[in-house]
């Protein structure tokens, strides 16, 4: 594997991990929402819609782009949970 290809692979993996961590960071907001300290529901709703579009895009590729799928699926679920708990 060429050095540039290896760098692209490393950056892609790092970006995927950071994306998952970004959506996992919704867990404290979900806990606050459930405890009665509601957060703003707009940002997690927009994040959820964004992740849905990325997952659709990645699955529609000739060769499915699994790093994008893996990075965005947590955002779909955690964004939805955060949104729902913020409006309840």
From TrEMBL:
<feature type="transmembrane region" description="Helical">
    <location>
        <begin position="42"/>
        <end position="59"/>
    </location>
</feature>
<feature type="transmembrane region" description="Helical">
    <location>
        <begin position="66"/>
        <end position="87"/>
    </location>
</feature>
<keyword id="KW-0472">Membrane</keyword>
<keyword id="KW-1133">Transmembrane helix</keyword>
<dbReference type="Pfam" id="PF03083">
    <property type="entry name" value="MtN3_slv"/>
</dbReference>
<feature type="transmembrane region" description="Helical">
    <location>
        <begin position="7"/>
        <end position="27"/>
    </location>
</feature>
<dbReference type="InterPro" id="IPR004316">
    <property type="entry name" value="SWEET_rpt"/>
</dbReference>
<protein>
    <submittedName>
        <fullName>SemiSWEET family transporter</fullName>
    </submittedName>
</protein>
<keyword id="KW-0812">Transmembrane</keyword>
């Amino acid at each position: 594997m060429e050095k540039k290809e290896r760098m692209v692979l490393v950056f892609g993996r790092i970006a995927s991990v950071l994306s998952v961590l970004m959506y996992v960071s919704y867990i404290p907001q979900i806990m606050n929402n459930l405890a009665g300290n509601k957060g703003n529901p707009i940002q997690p709703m927009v994040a959820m819609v964004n992740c849905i579009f990325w997952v659709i895009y990645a699955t529609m590729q000739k060769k499915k782009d699994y790093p994008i799928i893996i990075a965005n699926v947590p955002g779909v679920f955690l964004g939805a949970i955060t949104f729902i708990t913020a409006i309840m």
